[in-house]
């Protein structure tokens, strides 16, 4: 039995990047031998095991054959006679198909080191086209390594385009798609992820609503907004909201419908869903916050539930700042909204309870007190006439 370090741990060490997790491939062993050594199986039908002490993944060397549509449509063959080179050949990119033995020697049958030096993302073999998930995965790697100068080889982009044209992307489960998308949006260049999907036709298959934005200048603006998200190290919720916000610029009602449809078919987590919908609905009002009547302003703040979920409102303000263009005095509007939220939160229920308010009457009294606070806030923020 021989054990080799493989994949990202080898790649990132050679790039001088931090290694956050280590994967191993085991050649010349069986599932029974792994279990006898105390390894824990990850799944019933998949030859991957967790080390009994470190918890790192050890996979039996295997080959695979396409047997159906989508990411899961493969038959695996793992046995002691599968060689390391055969295992490396089934991997996606040459830079991920480098192994390292116990003495630190590199096994690199597909020129991965040359592609690391040349900054190329290049597929290992034509079998790349059998797995539609690799379209999203390579676009994610492009988003991660763009700051280092990496780009996708023409022949690999052509294979990605062939997969997109085949309709295979539609066979991916929403859960697996979201896992790749969410990781990609958090990479240093999420704009490269979207642009890569657009270049190979995958954006039209996955997010046709966003793809149509590139028929206008809004597409390029979207890429710039995503770059600013990464530069500001914004969380996933803000990045998802910024990705979808432009859908409601012309018609907020239609934009809300589209965002709701995207969220539902993608099984997007609730926090991302909610912020995206609220941003589409209230972004326009937020830009002209100083002109809102206290009633409209209070309704906006209530919709964000600023009393129990202040972070969501803070993320909305962050999204508004990122989306703003040079013609809008959005910083002033954001400052106004932030101080208005503080004024509304400062109104407490306890004094009203002490005065005998309960039930619906308490709720109405709270609303009136908050409206009064927002009216004072508006009057105090209004420019004073010169003497």
From TrEMBL:
GO biological process: RNA repair; tRNA 3'-terminal CCA addition
Entry keyword set: ATP-binding, Hydrolase, Magnesium, Metal-binding, Nucleotide-binding, Nucleotidyltransferase, RNA repair, RNA-binding, Transferase, tRNA processing
CDD domains referenced in this protein's UniProt entry, alphabetically: NT_ClassII-CCAase
Segments forming domain Poly A polymerase head: 4-122
Keyword hit for Cell membrane: no
Molecular function as annotated in GO: ATP binding; CCA tRNA nucleotidyltransferase activity; CCACCA tRNA nucleotidyltransferase activity; hydrolase activity; magnesium ion binding; tRNA binding
EC number: 2.7.7.72
Cofactor(s) named in the record: Mg(2+)
Binding site for CTP: 8, 11, 91, 137, 140
Domain named tRNA nucleotidyltransferase/poly(A) polymerase RNA and SrmB- binding: residues: 149-211
Residues annotated to bind ATP: 8, 11, 91, 137, 140
Highest taxon listed in the record's lineage: Bacteria
Residues at which Mg(2+) binds: 21, 23
Reactions accelerated catalytically: a tRNA precursor + 2 CTP + ATP = a tRNA with a 3' CCA end + 3 diphosphate; a tRNA with a 3' CCA end + 2 CTP + ATP = a tRNA with a 3' CCACCA end + 3 diphosphate
Protein family membership: Belongs to the tRNA nucleotidyltransferase/poly(A) polymerase family. Bacterial CCA-adding enzyme type 2 subfamily.
Entry function: Catalyzes the addition and repair of the essential 3'-terminal CCA sequence in tRNAs without using a nucleic acid template. Adds these three nucleotides in the order of C, C, and A to the tRNA nucleotide-73, using CTP and ATP as substrates and producing inorganic pyrophosphate. tRNA 3'-terminal CCA addition is required both for tRNA processing and repair. Also involved in tRNA surveillance by mediating tandem CCA addition to generate a CCACCA at the 3' terminus of unstable tRNAs. While stable tRNAs receive only 3'-terminal CCA, unstable tRNAs are marked with CCACCA and rapidly degraded.
Other notes: A single active site specifically recognizes both ATP and CTP and is responsible for their addition.
Protein name in UniProt: CCA-adding enzyme
Organism: Pseudomonas mangiferae
Gene behind this protein: cca
